[in-house]
Write a structure and sequence with these properties.
This protein is mostly beta strands. Helix content is 2%, strand content 56%. It has 1 helix and 26 strands. Strands 17-18-19-20-21-22-23 form a 7-stranded antiparallel sheet, with no helix packed on it. Strands 12, 13, 14, 15 and 16 form a 5-stranded antiparallel sheet that branches. A 4-stranded antiparallel sheet has the order 3-26-25-24, with no helix packed on it. A hairpin with a 7-residue loop joins strand 19 and strand 20. The N terminus is likely disordered.
Length: 342
């Protein structure tokens, strides 16, 4: 397979995936299970562009990410750009916080049909041990946004929101010396109640998560861990989602994003650390408790934090990477082979 990387921000020449592998890329660049249709660099205007998410809202595409001077810097803001075709992108919002570094943009559509952007503020001058606050903005049309709303609890970093049957769910992880994850629930995206105070008891530095609801019942949670036990976990819970069981996936990941395809398969975009660091697509087998890479995106260095959307039979994936030098935002289109018949 020879797939061109089509760039729209710069005038650099097209580069094939096979050429990227030859220049030091690693992993599964070509797969019988997937076709990498194209990858476009869609944004690189800030010194450092990173930590993405992607959603389709009112027949348009929205991608959100952080702009700043570096991976960790005091000037972080959340940028939202929009496109009708995923080729030409227009900025529609730039969210900042006076006295704070705003991080990790996440997009979702609320139960009543509003576009929600969430993130976390790292206070530049913490007071009384309070270092972080999760925040959210809302829009009816993708262009006009509300002022920021503080959500959740101080020092609990709410990673993303997933909506199911009119309720929003989010897991916040502690940024203090006492690590734990807390499951929240909301009806309006503004007021959140604690559903499970410690959803992964005894877990060492459990942090970033992605939630998926399977039809009307089961909730799955893809969980990142770090420290001396860095392997990812897959959590499972049935309504009312207060009791969780966990399986160790045996692989270290970063920036997890998981969705369920119409045929029931669970697919995740993650950062992988074995060998050369890269952004990859992986299958999640909930019954076996496994995570298996099937496609590597052109990536490397400072990379990952994808957004995933399945639309008209094609998987769209936003992510960031620094394999071309500058840390930039990319949009990939991936065609997946049908699930093999049992």
């Amino acid at each position: 397979m020879n797939v061109c990387l089509k760039m729209v921000v710069s005038a650099c020449a097209a580069v094939s995936v096979s050429a990227w592998v030859g220049m030091g890329g690693t992993g599964v660049a070509a797969s019988a299970e997937a076709e990498l249709v194209e990858v476009r660099r869609i944004w690189d205007r800030a010194p450092h562009n990173a930590f993405t998410d992607l959603v389709r809202f009112r027949d348009r595409w929205y991608c959100a990410f952080r702009e700043g001077k570096g991976h960790v810097s005091d000037d972080g803001k959340l940028r939202v750009v929009s496109s009708a075709d995923t080729r030409e992108w227009t900025p529609v919002a730039l969210m900042d916080w006076d006295g704070g570094d705003v991080r990790d943009a996440k997009l979702s559509i609320t139960g009543d049909g509003r576009l929600m952007l969430s993130g976390a503020v790292r206070f530049l001058q913490p007071t009384q041990g309070e270092t972080h606050q999760s925040v959210a903005w809302f829009s009816e049309d993708g262009t006009t946004w509300t002022p920021p709303v503080e959500i959740g609890d101080r020092n609990l970093w709410m990673w993303s929101a997933t909506w199911h049957k009119g309720n929003g769910y989010s897991i916040g992880y502690s940024v203090t010396s006492k690590p734990f994850i807390r499951l929240y629930r909301t009806r309006d995206g503004r007021t959140w109640e604690t559903l499970v105070d410690d959803a992964f008891p005894g877990g060492t530095y459990a942090n970033e998560t992605s939630l998926v609801f399977d039809g009307d019942a089961t909730c799955y949670c893809l969980l990142r861990r770090d420290s001396h036990t860095p392997t990812a976990q897959l959590g499972t819970a049935e309504p009312p989602y207060t009791e969780w069981t966990w399986k160790d996936l045996g692989v270290r990941i970063g920036g997890p994003k998981m969705i369920q395809l119409p045929d029931g398969r669970l697919v995740a975009g993650v950062r992988l650390y074995d060998g050369k660091v890269r952004t990859a697509l992986c299958w999640i087998d909930a019954e076996k408790g496994t995570l298996r890479e099937f496609l590597t995106l052109p990536s490397g260095g400072d990379t990952s934090y994808p957004g995933l959307v399945w639309h008209e039979g094609v998987l769209r994936m936003s992510y960031y990477a620094s394999h071309e030098g500058k840390t930039s935002i990319y949009l990939a289109k991936v065609r997946l082979e049908p699930s093999p018949q049992p």
